[in-house]
Every structure is written in C-alpha cells, then in structure tokens.
Write a structure and sequence with these properties.
This protein has helices spanning 2-12, 17-32, 45-70. The protein has 71 residues and is an all-alpha fold. The N and C termini lie far apart (50 Å).
C-alpha cells in the first residue's frame, strides 16, 4: 500500500543538511512569491529549485567559515 511505502521511505531516508536548507529556502520562495506580491520573481519551479540550492550552499559555506574562525 501507499501508506506502507511512505512509512518505509521515512525509516530509511534522512535528508542532508543541504537538502533541508534548500527545502526551507524553496518553501520561503514559494510562500513569499505565490501571487501575493507584485515582485518579478522566477516562477519556473526548476529555477526556483536552483535558487534554493544556491541559498543552501551559501548558508553551509558561511556556517563552515564561522566554525573555522572560532577554532
């Protein structure tokens, strides 16, 4: 069943930090630019996904940089 498939997927897959950060960024983009503003923003899902990953990579890079500076 679909429910069992979903349960198995949750038990065997753990998203990476990068995937979590990208998902949060993409969620913010979609929420913010979902037609409630007049902002000119890419509405192509593939472009939004690319942008979310760029933000995730930037966050990871900055966190690693700050960690290196404190060590």
């Amino acid at each position: 069943s679909l429910e069992r498939l979903d349960e198995n997927a949750r038990s065997t897959y753990s998203p990476t930090k990068r995937e979590c950060f990208a998902a949060m960024a993409m969620q913010g983009f979609v929420l913010h630019y979902s037609g409630y503003t007049s902002c000119n923003f890419e509405t192509d899902p593939n472009e939004t996904a690319k942008r979310a990953v760029e933000y995730a990579d930037a966050l990871i890079w900055q966190l690693e940089r700050e960690e290196d500076e404190t060590n």
